[in-house]
Design goal:
The chain contains five helices and eight strands, in the order αββββαβββαβαα. The chain has about 140 residues and is of the alpha+beta class. The chain has one domain (about 1-125): OB fold (Dihydrolipoamide Acetyltransferase, E2P) (Beta Barrel), CATH 2.40.50.90. The relative contact order is 0.20.
Length: about 140
């Protein structure tokens, strides 16, 4: 449990891979969810009754994977109900959630943006809620 505290202080660069369009797997800390966004779910992963982000999950994952240039730096914010670290993630000096939004590979979820941290970093956030629908944040 001390590693997340150290990460918050030091933001250690680490190697991660894309699991889908909004989640990374990092050997050092496990799965990391990008703060404030929802990407299309991989086949079979959209829970019954949930409104999932529109789009092609394979393209979203491939785009996120392409954004990872060497090590990533994670600024942890919280943990989600699945135990994943949720935070702002950077690679090549870019905020990966912002880049996913700009490319149309994810939608912004204000309710998932603790303290509106992502909105403050990324102008694309407010413009990229689910097209034609109110923010399905709950």
């Amino acid at each position: 449990m001390i590693l997340p505290i150290l990460l918050a202080i030091y933001q250690i660069p680490m190697t991660c891979v894309a699991v889908d369009g909004d989640t990374l797997k990092c050997p050092e800390i496990g799965r990391v969810r990008l703060l404030g966004i929802d990407a299309p779910e991989m086949p079979g992963h959209c829970r019954k009754g949930r409104v999932c982000a529109p789009g092609d999950p394979q393209k979203s994952k491939a785009h996120l994977a392409k954004l990872i240039r060497g090590d990533v730096v994670i600024s942890p914010v919280t943990r989600d109900r699945y135990g994943r670290t949720v935070g702002q993630v950077y690679s090549g000096g870019k905020n990966l959630a912002c880049e996913q939004l700009r490319a149309g590979m994810a939608v912004y979820k204000r309710a998932w943006d603790n303290g509106r941290r992502l909105a403050k970093k990324c102008r694309a956030a407010d413009a990229k809620t689910q097209p034609g629908k109110p923010d399905q944040s709950s």
